Amino acid sequence: MSLITPHGGTLVNRILEGSAASALRDQAKSLAAITLSPREQFDLEMIAIGAFSPLTGFQGKADFESVCRNLRLADGTVWPIPVTLTPADEVAATINPGQKYALNDSVGRLLGVITVTEKYAHDKALEIPNVYRTEDPAHPGVAAVQKQGNFCIAGPIDVVQATYEPEFPDFRKTPAQTREMFAAKGWSTVSAFQTRNPIHRAHEYLTKCALEITDGLLIHPLVGETKSDDIPADVRMACYKVLIDNYYNKDRTLLTVMPLAMRYAGPREAILHALIRKNYGVTHFIVGRDHAGVGNYYGTYDAQKIFEQFDIAKEIGITPLNFEHSTWCKTCEGMVSAKTCPHGPETKVFLSGTKVRDLLKAGQRPPMEFSRPEVADILIKWAQAAK
Ligand SMILES: [Zn+2]
After folding, report:
1. Is position 357 annotated as part of the catalytic site?
2. Is 196 a catalytic site residue?
3. Per the confidence metrics, is the pTM higher than 0.90?
4. Residue 325 Cα, ligand 1 centroid: separation in angstroms?
5. Average pLDDT over residues 262-269
6. Does the pLDDT at position 1 exceed 60?
7. Looking at 266-314, which runs of residues are DSSP E strands?
8. 61-84 per-residue burial string, b: 16 or more CB within 10 A, e: under 16
9. In angstroms, rounded to a whole number, what is the distance separating the alpha carbons of residues 93 and 89?
10. C-alpha 324 – ligand 1 centre gap (Å)
């Protein structure tokens, strides 16, 4: 049995151990330091553990431009979103290509060292409209790029500690670890579900449809930086655990987390999320409606359509599983989509996001056709405490 090949062919590992790590720590004491933003810290971890394979560091100018224009690295490998290191301009001014710099977290602890190969002007006018399909500063991904520095620092990184206080350490498995877990379970095909929300009945249905066609299911929530009105990761994790405990076959289901910062780039981010899951050893990736979208910037199924511009088998390698919007149908007495049910909207159990939040704040469970009661109770506790 062989697991799926990582993106670009080799699973990257930029984490030094033992004497190599001690030597780098010693060397770093004499280096000038760059303090990473929260997103850059998550990106450093994603590079270090191989989740961003084939990247070995922060991207240079040729890759940056090619990614923005063509969704490919300069060598042609598919890559949809730039991964940049953009310190404050006064810091960037002191950085010279050819030298090494310590990379520190926000409180000054050493994460790793970058060997700078390049410093180049950050072409936000190229990045923003291409990656986000909008220049509206109200878009959280656009706003994040606008706030970044005006120079990008590129080069490979070597990491001594990917993070000092990992959230959910028991669930924070690296691609090498999930690959081992899949092999130990004898799964040759695995579906993954990306989520940054609690899982209600509709998404439970998608994950179980996917599991009907693969050996295993990886529920893989994003726990990196999200926008402030998203539900906090610890509340979501409690929801995932109670849902899996009560409603999933545990021999076939794994829950681990992914330390990626959200970009809210919709279609391009769907490609990124899929490629990352391939690195984790996943073969099938669930793409629902408005994947990684925000507001009304992207068409409902744009994130599914974007895969069609590639030779999926050759260039993407992981199989996207496209799903339509699903709901409970009272006439069918089950979860359905427009693809499977002939009945009209009047038979569907539909609740808007606002309606759900109002119910939770009032201490009321949404109907069981919308949300499992165990999940609803966790969200009620959170909504009432946050009031
Ligand atoms: Zn129906």
Report:
1. no
2. yes
3. yes
4. 13
5. 96
6. no
7. 284-287
8. bebbbbbbeebbbbeebbbbbbbb
9. 6
10. 14
